Every structure is written in C-alpha cells, then in structure tokens.
Amino acid sequence: MSTQRHQFAIPGHATHCAGLSAFIVIITVALLAGAPLPASAQGPEAYGAPHLFSLPTATTARQFGMGGVSTSLEDIGFPNPAFAGMLSSPRAGLRVACTEFDGDGMSLTGTQAWYATPIGEDQGMQFLGFRLDSDRGAIMTPAGPLPGSIEETDLAVHYGRRVSEQWLLGIGVSPVLKTETRLFNPMDGSVLSFSESEAQIGGRLGALYNYEPDGFVGLVFDWYTEDVRFQAPPMTAPAKFDFTSTEWALGASKRITEKVTGAIEWMELKSEDGAFRSKSEGLHLGVEVEAAPGIAVRAGSNDGSLSLGGGYSRDEWVVNYAFTSDWNDDAVGAAFGGSQTHQLEIGGYW
Length: 350
Known about the structure:
mainly beta; 14-stranded antiparallel barrel; 9% helix; globular
C-alpha cells in the first residue's frame, strides 16, 4: 500500500492561519463523529500502536529474522518466561531496532536489553528493559498528514521453572509499561491531540512442551489493564478510559535436519474498552540454516511481511542481524505507510 506524503512548511501569512483553523476543525469533527480512523493515528485506541513495536510483541533479532516467532525457539533471550527454567548459566543481550517509514514518514528506534540467570535447579529469572521513541514524522489523518510521535517505556521480570522432564512453566510481570502518542500542529509545533496509557495490573504466563531435544511447543498469554487518557480539540480536559489488553501466541519449533531449524506461530493482540477496540493478529513462520560453522542465515514471513536475517557465534558471543519489510503493515500501514526495519543484536553467555 502506498501512502502519499507531503513536506510540512511554515508559511508566514495570515491567510494560512485561517486555513489551519479549518484544518483543525475537520480533524475535530472527524474525531467527535467517530470516523473510521486508524488506531495508530487518532482516538483513545492510539495508545496501542507503540505496543506493536515494543516489548509486548518483542523477541530476539534471531527470531525476528525467522518471521518474528516468540514462543517456542530456545535463544539467548526469550519472550516466553518458561524458558527461564532451562537456564544453565547467566546470559545478556542488547538489541537495537530502527524502523523507517516511507517518504516523510516517522522513524522509530527501539532499544531492548536483558539479563537472565539461573537461581536454582531447574529455575531462573530474566530482567528486561525496552525504550521506544520516534522523531516527528508524518501520520496520515482524514484531513491529511500531520506530524506526530510515539514512545513507550517498558520494564519486565520473568520467572520460569521446569516442572517435569518435558514441561516448563513461567510467569512475567511488567511493573513499568507506559505509552504516549501525539499529533502536533504543523504551524507552531503545539500538541493537537495526545493519547497516553499506563499499565495497572496483569502479567504474562508461558508454557513449554519439550517434545524432543531441540523441539518445543510454546504458549504465551498476556492480560493486563491500562489507564488511558485522550485529549483532542475542543476538549478542555482529557477523557479517561480503562482498557483491557490481551495477547496470546501459540507456536512450535523443530530441528528439521542437523543444520535446519523451522518455527511456526499464530499471535493475536487485542485492546478494548466498550466501543473502543483495536486488534492485530497474524501468522509467523521461519527457517534457519547453518551455512557454515558459527554462521546462520534466516528467512521468514511476519504476518505476510518478508523477514531476513543472519548471525555469527563464536565461543560465548553471538551477533545477529534481522530485516523486516512493512512490519505491522496491516495495523499501521494506512496511517504510517510502508516501512523497512533493521535490527542489530549482540549477546554473551558466561
């Protein structure tokens, strides 16, 4: 899908002020009339857009190269907290993701860091932090493109335990989960509208069935409530909402041959409060091939979007790269346009 983009100018004539006033009125009418606006661009649902690019749906660069799978592939980091029950030594990693939207669109930068360690026999913990921010890129609205920004800050703790020879269970909590989406006046840079949220209660549950030495079936389920505030002209004070957000993903991985590993997964992310709701779902699948000792190449589909990747490991160190085309396009493409995402990750074992 291609979306037309425009450069924003700052004219200095009074006639443009009248045009801007009409521009704001159009946006306001659309908001109050309940026009079908993309969740990522307008309305109280806008708070959910950062979740699609941050910790609630995050995985490692290796797994992003395989289509963004997150539930069933053993790796240096793990979205499924049940994997903490398999830890035999400490490990840590840092992943940086850069998403560039087409034309004059927004640029996103996501930084994720984690540290995991065993804390006893067949049990362990993982600590994660994530920061997402953007520049003031163009976001499409019913009245045309407007400059906007999104950001999110996440902290999470995972605990996992092996409960039998083949079963592992895990639990995770996010004591910090804050998001903010803004639209700005293209003339003076003031805030036209904003949506912000903060998680209140909830957590993540994970389960793994280790059906063969390098094969897993995995399940992840999130449930949490979020306090959301939204304001747009001519509102004099923010409106408040109590959203309930859920995410679940079910997947499986298998070592197909000595040098080939495959994975497949279905994921759904949903947020709702009465008439306001947003939903994203899709199929993730990918394959990894050991091309040479310590060198792997990867390819996959992230809900129909192409993903590619490669990695190098030596001794206790790993370096991974992943590329995704039009990531989350079905959810945000109408507002942000097409995109390219590049990710680089480095990690180590002790």
